[in-house]
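User: Sequence in, structure out. Go.
Assistant: Echoing your sequence, followed by the C-alpha cells.
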Amino acid sequence: MIIGKSEFTGLTDKKGVEIFEGDIVKVEYGIGRVVFNAGCFMIAWIDDPEANMELLGILIKPISGRPRKELEILGNIFEHKNLLENG
C-alpha cells in the first residue's frame, strides 16, 4: 500500500493497475484527477477545469456496446503534485 493513497475505486487502468481516489489519470481526450463526489468516483478534468466531471465507472467499463476508454494512471496527488498544474 502506498502512503497517502485514498479509497480504492474497485477499478483498474488499461495496465491492470488499481485506481484510487487522488490518482491523476489520462484518457485520449484529457487529464484528470479521480475524486469522490455525490457518492460516486468521478474524474475532475485538470486540463479543462470548465468541463463537467465524468463518472469513472461509466468511462472505462463498456456499457451497451459503447467501447471502453483507455485510461492510464500518471501518478497521484500525494506523490506528484506537479501533475495538477494546468498546461
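User: And one key feature?
Assistant: The two ends are 30 Å apart (CA to CA).
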